[in-house]
Amino acid sequence: MMTMMTSTILQLSRTGRRLTLQVERVYGEKVKVIYNVEQTASMANFRTEKDTLGEVQVPADKYYGSQTVRSIKNFPIGVETERMPVISNRAIEILGGKLGTKTPVHPNDHVNKSQSSNDTFPTAMHIAVALEIHNTLVPGLEALQKALANKAKEFENIIKIGRTHLMDAVPLTLGQEFSGYATQLQYGIDRVKDTLPRLYQLALGGTAVGTGLNTRIGFAEKCASKISELTGLPFVTAPNKFEALAAHDSMVEVSGALNTIACSLMKIGNDIRLLGSGPRCGLAEIILPENEPGSSIMPGKVNPTQCEAITMVAAQVMGNHVAVTVGGSSGHFELNVFKPQIVSNVLRSIRLIGDSCKAFTDNCVSGIRANEERILKLLNESLMLVTALNPHIGYDKAATIAKTAHKEGTTLKEAALKLGLVSEADFGKFVKPQDMLGPK
């Protein structure tokens, strides 16, 4: 029975994009409509089951039982597919019995032996999230991080003007700028991986309130070992089942790491969008791939849709984290009932980030080109190159040169010579962008 249970939990966690714990309205409405159609077809196609509230009509060919029927009727935003009756009825069918009879395999006495939804649900949450981190999130992040690092190397000798407060600043290379993005993503990957040790701790064996009532000594450890074997991930039994049932801090921690990644993606997406703005009246320091026509009214216009998409994803993940935070803080005494809300939002965030990073990598970052002519033009026109004169003539005189050049529309060199604050030879010796890229 333990193997059947662990296999079922693993199957639930492997259902990919369908493991949202059925809280989507569209799915709930679909099942509700299907049930109503079936119900009106013929009562002869139904079986009668009993629960603690009375008799319930269940579609004769379905493995689920009375609780799913009641959920369909009472909760239009979702539907519960009971794990116990489904497993029980499938086993009964295999053994040649009749669905709904609860014999020879009883949903509570056999399938749910030594278990409770209070410990199996958080166990499934941890398995699902851990698998999605390994299979979807990390591969997407690593692909984007690698692409950004490759661009940092490709652009390492292209000197451009820096910007702080959206205003001209001292120079750096385009490669240095992209290296910052790559490092942000690497730190994001590290943060997510740092959450895994807590995520690998499973609540199974805590049963109703964390005491392990109705289990046997060693049950929790054996289950964790089997789940680890089935998934290939190092799951262990949680050392404190009271924390594992009543709090979901590990899920909030994962969501927090995802939220930080969303902050990184928002900055990276916006920076790349702004660097590619134009093509003639913006910064236009980089050239973005043209993926599709950008306007229904302006011919030839191309928009930075991949940047816009990933920033929208970032905004959604930030919102999801707020929901997870509220859910994680809503545990009362020995149980947190916000489990569906918490895990569905964490899984959505993981998939949104993983999928959008892949699209952003393939359809944008990998195809970015440097507009070296434009970069050089803006670099030579920048007034902030005057900063290189600070050690030689002082801040105040350097500021006078910059303000004069700006006011009169001249170059720094022309203003410096006019004011007599530096010679032509010294200006050429002191103001070299290639010497302004690091400490001396």
TrEMBL record:
TM regions (residue ranges): none
Top-tier EC class: lyase
Protein's recorded name: fumarate hydratase
EC numbers for this chain: 4.2.1.2
Location of the Fumarase C C-terminal domain: 385-437
UniProt cross-references to SUPFAM superfamilies, sorted A to Z: L-aspartase-like
Record-stated family: Belongs to the class-II fumarase/aspartase family. Fumarase subfamily.
GO annotation, cellular component aspect: mitochondrion
Keyword check for Transcription: no
Pfam families: FumaraseC_C, Lyase_1
Taxonomic superkingdom: Eukaryota
